[in-house]
Every structure is written in structure tokens, then in C-alpha cells.
Amino acid sequence: MTRLLGYVDPSDPYFVAAVVTIAFNPLFWNVVARWEQKTRKLSRAFGSPYLACYALGGAILFLNALRSHCFTQAMLSQPRMHSLDNPVAYRAGLALLAVGSVLVLSSFFALGFTGTFLGDYFGILKEARVTTFPFNMLDNPMYWGSTANYLGWAVMHASPTGLGLTVVVALIYAVAILYEEPFTAEIYQQKSSQFRKRS
Known about the structure:
The protein is mainly α.
């Protein structure tokens, strides 16, 4: 670990920008989604919960693209690790990127746009919580798929900085899950209870 940290300059502006965007993105979408769930102000402003959800989804996609750009620039601005700079490590990184992409894309197709981008906070609920692949393999596959993508990208670039930033990604996602998961479980439990009462 000490050897890896020797490659990383945390004062580098690109590194700082990467850490800020990694931390900011889940904070942004959780704060906005909870605000919407309590006030419905976005839905009223856009005239529809669907349009409001699409707008938030667009903002999240933009912020995620910015985060990935900052992550890549941070890696490129700092030294490569020679022991990782070989064809075997590159192929391992490529495999991680492939696994991560499968998890992210299959999650998106299973959830749809509104399910992916916090539609439940806008009152847009599916009939029940999704339990098909990849949700039958692990919880929160989109977050862990995204983490695998960053890890693979870091290994492909033989970047200790990328590895360190991937740890930050994983930690931020773990915190986001602790915040989001109880809400999602609660709203689907409420929906199930209401359905049983009606039937």
C-alpha cells in the first residue's frame, strides 16, 4: 500500500477534481431525489414526474461523464506503475471492464430509464422490485459494475492513482447504498401492503 501511495500526488489538481466529482455525484442525486420526494417541486416545474425524472437522469449522465473524464485525467497526469504495465495486467483490466459493463448495461435494461435514475422518488414505481439478472446475482449491481469499470480502467492504464480513486468510488457507493437501500425497501413494502389491503 505504501508503495502504491508513493506514486500518488493528492495535491495534483486533476486528482482533487476526480475526488470531488466522485464524492459529489451521489450526494447530488440523493439530495435532489429526496427533495423531490418530499416536495414534488421538480414534477410540478416540468409538468410531469416522468419529464422531471428524465431531466435528473440527463444531469446524472452528464455528471458521470465529467467524473470519468476527471478520473482519466488524474491517471494520465501521474506516473504509471511498471509492475502493472504488461499484457497480462492489461487483459485483466479489460476483463474487469467487460464484467463491469455487463453489470451496468444489464441493470439498466432490467430497470429502464426511470428505474435507473431514481424514478421511485418521483412516484414512478415498478410492479415489484426487480429480481432478474443481474439483481439475482448481487445487490446494487450497477454501482458495483461501475466500480469494476473504474478498476479495470485503472489496471489497463497501470495507474496507482486510478487504483486509489477506485477505492474512493467503492467507499462513496457503499455510503450511498446505506442511504438509498432503506428507502427503496420501504416504498416497495408499502406498495405491497397497499396491494394486499385492496385484494
